[in-house]
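User: Reviewer 2 asked us to show a designed sequence for the structure in our supplementary figure. I'm pasting the structure tokens here. Could you produce the per-position amino acids so we can include them in the response letter?
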């Protein structure tokens, strides 16, 4: 129908004439309440943002000569973070003479990797950064 007639019909009903696909031949238009349509689109976008999961990076700090119980407590935290869907950054901090024995810290990080192998994949393998060694784990 002609555009002028469509606009007139929309005004009679109390709605707006909205071009759905203006590039089609002939152009496709629809009668609808534009304010209500924009409001619903805004609500849908806000709802989609609300449902989206933000992946956080949690950090666990250890020392090379950590005791077995302390290690177990840290490992429970690592597993909890991975179950929640967060990435885990395991940091091994060296102080004083511990710098001379970085292989002990590396062995500990490899032990962590082996324990969480079925729950996590290694995103970045252990690497030395100054006085600390860092490894990042991501949930599977």
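Assistant: Here is a per-position design you can include in the supplement:
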């Amino acid at each position: 129908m002609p555009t002028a007639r469509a606009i007139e019909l929309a005004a009679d009903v109390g709605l707006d004439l909205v071009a759905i696909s203006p590039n089609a031949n002939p152009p496709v238009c629809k009668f609808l309440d534009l304010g209500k349509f924009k409001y619903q689109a805004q609500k849908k976008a806000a709802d989609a943002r609300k449902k989206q999961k933000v992946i956080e990076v949690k950090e666990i700090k250890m020392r090379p000569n950590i005791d077995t119980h302390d290690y177990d407590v840290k490992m429970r935290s690592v597993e909890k973070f991975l179950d929640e869907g967060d990435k885990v950054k395991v940091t091994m901090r060296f102080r004083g003479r511990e710098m001379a024995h970085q292989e002990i810290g590396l062995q500990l990080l490899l032990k962590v990797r082996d324990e969480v192998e079925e729950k996590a994949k290694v995103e970045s393998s252990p690497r030395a950064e100054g006085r600390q060694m860092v490894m990042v784990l991501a949930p599977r």
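For the response letter, you might also mention the following. Strands lie at 16-21, 28-32, 57-62, 87-93, 120-129, 132-139. The CA atoms of residues 56 and 86 lie 5 Å apart.
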